[in-house]
DNA sequence: CCGGAACGTGAGAGCGCTCTCACGAGTGGC
DNA sequence: GCCACTCGTGAGAGCGCTCTCACGTTCCGG
């Protein structure tokens, strides 16, 4: 007798109802909703009033069914927890992406596969054409995803220059120039025995930043001393080990450029524990300009990437790829900025 | 003549095609796809082979149209950038949510409204019934969203106990108990003049953590000295100001419980700048156990919240709310954990 | 004054799926 | 040997929308 089942949600009106109320055909309402110009002004007004009155909102599923577009794009983040959780890179990036999508009235479907099973689910989901495009964050070197997407002709954009000759749209920060700026800054500050703690040698970002380091030294006419180059892995632990090695092998170093802030923090700790004053004896520069850069004493000079902008650019690129599917891949490389703080303050100011 | 337009994407098979290949009706294929038991074993096998051969994947839009469910839920993050970007809380939370949704084969639609316009778009999107449920992260006190969702009968779960008597499902960490644990830990370590830097007084989490502080002092029979309570705002700047005030007013303090790690880092800096040795003279405890807790010297004792688990629990709760819409609201409060590090090491060990 | 272009509108098909209902073939009890 | 079932399967309607095409007006040039 009583109504026991959960009361039905979603009391939204349909096109048909709007049409009836406005006294026009479904087609006309559809035209109004989709902003067609071929509707007379007063009919448009009548329809709009009806839409307002009924609180009509188009049913995305129905629209999607006929247009064969979902008006949503997927953001795939396949990043090990360590990176994901240790700096606010991803929130920023996603925020940039989200803002740009919102303007275009596209939905953001977030995928964060955790394991093999998840990953397969993700591939199936993407290749099934449930989204109009895909943004790939943190692609692994041998990730088959780009190829699979290309085969299905699903537009995709990746973050960061892909390692192999993967032919795909990408957005990257200018890591090489960033490394160059950081190192040049140290040179300007009068440093001559400049060490570096690199990222992993199999990651493009790490390799590029190191290349920038070499560039800057070459520009300054300072010969590269391989003893001053230590390989890290972007993490604190790796940075610590590398700094200890450097200090032992090259006790005369007067500056360190670290390819991540996390490693810079570690280096700072090791230097201070060894009794080296920063920046007086040794200057330190990090990379990423993450929030921890301002929590250290002294605060950390760092290279800032335009993260939000990278997100926005990925969306622009993707939108272009959706519109003209199959066009030649484009690449966008954004400039970085050096944020000078106390950790590299001059001993020999000009 | 030649095919000039971008080649059509999404060459996916339909139910009909599978049916034709398998020599059965659409209905039967649908039953197989949806795991109905009312299909004989060999027909099922035939159909499955056909599905495999054609690489068939159901069209979500079409399914959605008839079932009136989208199989996706929205996660709404309306957090000021400062919080969002200063600690990896959100990546962790979203990861927990994502993992739990993935198991249930639900899609995660992420919404991060930036401004007023965005916010309205978000409301429209959610109330239009485009998602089966909503997870609200970081609700403002006077946010109309929960009410609007309730009116439309759209299941929702919020993170954190809502301030007013909002009657809604929520998941929270036990902030009060966390504050109690942190303070009790300091008592155990022999501290007696224990100060605290609170969160904003209009945020539930801040108020609760302070209540826990009072609880612990009461348990230990230590009278509360209001001079030892300074109001912060979870940020570094706020923590700095509060610590300076405390140091000026109560130079005899021997410990500080800070309601966030960011404030604890700031307090540490102020204390060290003032020549107080940590932990020998003053012990410091933070809250959140964020990565910066291990970048300070000494490393920071902190209260850890089960962030991923909170995400998972939100999904469980939401799934329940979707299944039995309109049921009485449920609340889940998860325990915290104290992570002891050097910043609160004992001066007076038992 | 008429032919035809331009414009606004409506009718109707159909997107791919689920689900109800009907139906035929087995199965078993009396 | 018949009726009542159960069980597996198919036919067909319809979800809400877009889009093509056809139709009726209006307007203008010749």
Describe the structure.
Two copies of one chain form a homodimer. In chain A, strand 6, helix 10 (about 205-220) and strand 7 form a beta-alpha-beta unit. The first copy, chain A, is built from 13 helices and twelve strands. Chain A is α/β, with parallel strands linked by helices and about 350 residues long. A six-stranded parallel beta sheet of chain A has the order 2-1-3-4-5-11, with helices on both faces. Chain A has helices at about 15-20, 25-35, 40-55, 60-65, 80-85, 90-105, 115-125, 145-150, 175-190, 205-220, 235-250, 260-275, 305-325; strands at about 70-75, 105-110, 135, 155-160, 170-175, 195-200, 230, 255-260, 285, 300-305, 330-335, 335-340. Helices cover about 45% and strands about 15% of the residues of chain A. Chain A is elongated, with a radius of gyration of 27 Å. At the A-B interface, helix 4, helix 5, helix 6, strand 2 and helix 7 of A face helix 4, helix 5, helix 6, strand 2 and helix 7 of B. Chain A binds a DNA duplex (30 and 30 nucleotides) through helix 2 and helix 4.
What can be said about this structure in brief?
Two copies of one chain form a homodimer. The first copy, chain A, is α/β, with parallel strands linked by helices.
Structural class of chain A comes to alpha/beta
What is the gyration radius of chain A calculated from CA atoms?
27 Å
Largest interface: A-B, 67 and 66 residues
In sequence order, what are the helices and strands of chain A, one letter per element? HHHHEHHEHEHEEHEHEHEHEEHEE
The N- and C-terminal alpha carbons of chain A lie at a distance of 89 Å
- Please outline the major beta sheet of chain A: 6 strands, parallel
- Average pLDDT for all residues of chain A: 90
Net shape of chain A: elongated
């Amino acid at each position: 007798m009583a109504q026991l089942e959960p009361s039905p949600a979603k009391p939204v009106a349909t096109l048909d109802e709007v049409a009836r109320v406005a006294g026009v055909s479904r087609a006309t309402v559809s035209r109004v909703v989709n902003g067609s110009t071929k509707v007379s002004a007063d009919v448009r007004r009548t329809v709009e009033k009806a839409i307002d009155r009924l609180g009509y909102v188009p049913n995305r599923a129905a629209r999607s069914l006929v247009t064969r577009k979902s008006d949503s794009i997927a953001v795939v983040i396949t990043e090990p927890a360590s990176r994901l959780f240790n700096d606010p890179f991803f929130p920023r990036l996603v925020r940039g992406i989200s803002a740009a999508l919102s303007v275009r009235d596209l939905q953001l479907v977030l995928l964060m596969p955790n394991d093999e099973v998840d990953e397969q689910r993700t591939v199936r989901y993407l290749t099934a054409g449930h989204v109009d495009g895909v943004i790939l964050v943190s692609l692994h070197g041998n990730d088959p995803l780009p190829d699979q997407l290309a085969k299905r002709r699903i537009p995709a954009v990746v973050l960061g220059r892909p390692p192999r000759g993967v032919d795909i749209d990408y957005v990257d920060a200018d890591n090489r120039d960033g490394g160059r700026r950081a190192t040049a800054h140290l040179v300007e500050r009068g440093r001559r025995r400049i060490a570096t703690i690199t990222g992993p040698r199999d990651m493009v970002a790490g390799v590029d930043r190191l290349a920038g380091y070499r560039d800057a030294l070459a520009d300054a006419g300072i010969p590269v001393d391989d003893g001053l180059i230590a390989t890290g892995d972007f993490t604190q632990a790796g940075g610590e080990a590398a700094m200890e090695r450097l200090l032992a092998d090259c006790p005369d170093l007067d500056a360190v450029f670290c390819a991540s802030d996390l490693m810079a923090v570690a280096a700072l700790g090791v230097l201070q524990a060894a009794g080296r004053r920063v920046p007086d004896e040794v200057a330190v520069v990090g990379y990423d300009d993450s929030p921890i850069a301002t929590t250290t004493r002294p605060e950390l000079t760092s290279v800032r990437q335009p993260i939000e902008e990278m997100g926005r650019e990925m969306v622009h690129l993707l939108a272009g790829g959706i519109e003209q599917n199959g066009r030649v891949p484009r690449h966008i490389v954004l400039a970085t900025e050096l944020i000078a703080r106390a950790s590299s303050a001059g001993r020999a100011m000009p």
